[in-house]
Amino acid sequence: MKIPFLRDGPERAPRMINASILRSSFERRGLLIGAVQGGVGVLLALRLGYLAIAENEKYRLESESNRVNLTLVPPRRGWILDRNGAPLASNRADFRVDLIPERLVDADATIDRLGQLLSLEPARIADIKDKVSTARGFQPVEVASGLGYEQFAALSVRLPDLPGVVPQRGFSRFYPTASSVGHLIGYVGPASAEEYEKDPNPLLITPGYKIGKDGLEKQFEKSLRGVPGARRVEVTAGGRIVRDLETREDVQGQPIRLTIDGPLQDYAARRIGLESGSVVVMDCRTGDLLCMASMPSFDPNSFSDGIGGVEYAMLRDDERVPLRNKVLKGLYPPGSTVKPMVSMAFMQAGIDPNETVFCGGGLQVGNRRFGCWNRRGHGAVDMAKGIYQSCDVYFYAMAQRIGMDPIAAMARRCGMGQEFPLPVTSQFFGTVPDPAWKMKKWGREWQAFDTVNATIGQGYMLSSPLQLAVMASRLATGKHVMPRLTLDTKPQGFDKIDFPAEQVEYVRKAMSDVVNGPGTAGRARLPIDGTLMAGKTGTAQVVSLSISNGKSGPWKYRDHGLFIFFAPYDNPRYAGAVVIEHGGGSGAAYPIARDVMTFMFDPAKGLEALAALEAGWGGTAQQRLEARYAAYAAERGASVSRPPRREEEIFDRVEAEARRAATQPEAIADEVIAPRPEANPSGTPPGSPAPAPATAPAAPAPAPSAAEISE
């Protein structure tokens, strides 16, 4: 249909289309399409070239990863060795099983199945389920270690039905002397989520890998860690291993050589027996810490395997606090063990050691009467007698003359109130009170009775067993002995003479008379001809007389027993301290020092005495710990509450409790302290054989009779 009004000109004739026009149009279109196709081809070629050349490494690795699995091999930790090269912490080959939570299909069913295959206890199964439910998906959870080959093989053949289960051969940490080194060495465990976030190293989430969690294991983590190895295996699309391609061996961590004497450490830990306390022994010539035993303790092998709820509950509920390192984090009033140090302060202040004070059983200071432990009095007392008979009145009188500041200064020179440069996670350094300290802490003026209490190691004065051992070594040598814990640390302080030789000799002789003369620790004499030990007893009151007499009643209200010592007397080689918590007095401490020193000079005789004691105690410390656990587990079973999610929480709680316990004596710091009998002064002539060791923990010594004192 034509529409006339739309026409704007004459009508054109229709265009003629012939073969030439069609051919030309086709060629143009073909050229355009060819150009487009050629461009696409060039782009594809360029892309293929880019992938083949520029991205070659990336896709070669991805292709290789589809065919090959690369896994890290956890490195073997470096050994921790004693001074003689014997292992305190080593590695042993074993079979182990871990779980990867994010790979589990039915966690409870898998864990129950593993419990059947590995014969796990119900409490252990409950612990594993609890850990899996709270662990990060990538964080491996240990099921069992130290498996036999039959158990490992039985599990390995069932792996297709147990997704998320990772059995492997490897090395686990092993502590040969177990609880004897628990506090000193610490333990290892899988890295927590928080630790991985701080150090996102793939090694930390490798199944079977553990890091140091406490003690020296934690302190020397970087040195002990080592370099991981790697294993390449060819696998099918389903992940089945076809063949091993290459293995790069791990590099074991560096060994750490300690100054600790392994046999002595084990002996001292066992000799503490049923008591709660610590033993520290130093080499006076080098400052080497030969022994740092704290008991009761825990088995680091159990912690390294992942402590269960039952064992943790047993340790947590024990009033003797086996999780606390009493050497470094136990603070106690030092009691009369400070009297040799105070005597050095007297002589430095110009007091003649031959000057006497009459002891009639007490001394009036202001409106208060302060008694001596010997209520009948010691008569005329010079400095030496004040030390070996532990006469309190002598020290009351002389301290009033010179004041507290010189005594506090001497205490610090002897190591009290000081923190030592040791590779430990933390240490408490106690209190050396003086007028400035009291004003700053309490906002009150220093009083005469504060000096009296501090002079006999009570009041606000607090010290650790390590500090007491350092004090003993400095009194014995007259030098500024500094403790060291690793053999690659240079000895310090031996070029510095702290005290005049004649004053050192005077105090040394008086401390010898404590043990070998008419002193308060005659039963501490060494049963070794020609070897004399010197020392000083101490009994520390922890609660007021209205609560306890210090000898009986609830355990936590009894007096602490302390003893510092060195031997041989005439040429000091070893010095140390024994502190027995709530032992009822010094009579609980010095027999331990006697036996420890006997072991140092005559191991056979020391072991003979220990064997007799352990027969009455029910076995070694480790045997008793295992028996306690078995009885506790049988009684409580899996009904106990779970341990904290993070191991750090356990020791944070322990440290907080230790700080609270250290403040206990402050409650009686302003009271009149009633000194306790130090022990039974012995009238046996020097050189007589020491009494045979008892077969049970030493009972608190009764107050000496008039006859004993007159001897």
Notable characteristics:
alpha+beta, 711 residues, 39% helix, 5-stranded antiparallel β-sheet
What structural category arises from helix and sheet content? alpha+beta
Can you count the beta strands?
19
Report the biggest beta sheet as strand number plus sense, adding barrel if it closes: 5 strands, mixed
The percent range for helix content is 25-40%
The chain-level mean pLDDT equals 84
Strand content bin: 15-25%
| Shape, per Cα inertia axes | elongated
Radius of gyration, Cα only, in angstroms? 37 Å
**Helical stretch count?**
26
Q: In terms of per-residue confidence, which ranges show pLDDT below 50 for 5 or more consecutive residues?
A: 681-711
Termini separation: 151 Å
